[in-house]
Amino acid sequence: ELISSLRSKLQTLWEERELVLSEARECAERGEELEAMVQDVCKPNEFERYMMFIGDLEKVVSLLLCLSSRLARVQNAMRRIDGNTDAEEKQSLNERHKLLSRQREDAKDLKENLDRRERVVSGILAKYLTDQQLQDYRRFVQVKTSLLIEQKDLEEQIKFFEEQLENLEKSIP
């Protein structure tokens, strides 16, 4: 029953992932349309700023999500430490925790810088775009970010359930 339940949950997650990937493709198409429009109306240096912001948006959000999930895994491993855990493993986990915490703080600084750059890009676009076009741009940025987060979350869940299923199948003779 448990194996069947895990397989069913995985199937649901795979289907959700396909929907999110489809939404991501639609978002990318909207992004390309927006890019062409921005290129048409902005000066080359302003367009370059826009493109750098959009490219960095995905990188910074992905970095933050990756570091957060790695940090969570280390914290979970640290919670499982008991009297039987050797000192070397404890030290390794503590060092990884410190490193990932520092890296996540650096990534948060990058995100704050990215948010400032977004305000600059928004200001530039406000000079050229209609209110509706500006709203479309802001919605695009918001949807792109939320889809990245949703994709990462689904990947983590799928990975977790696949590991659970694999461990369960190995434990049954």
UniProtKB/TrEMBL annotation:
One of its GO terms (biological process) is actin filament organization. It holds the Pfam family ASD2. This is SHRM1 protein. It comes from the Eukaryota. One of its GO terms (molecular function) is actin filament binding. Residues 1-173 form the ASD2 domain. Keywords: Coiled coil, Cytoplasm, Cytoskeleton. The gene is Shroom1_0. It is found in: Cytoplasm, Cytoskeleton. One of its GO terms (cellular component) is cortical actin cytoskeleton. Belongs to the shroom family. Residues 90-120, 144-171 form a coiled coil.
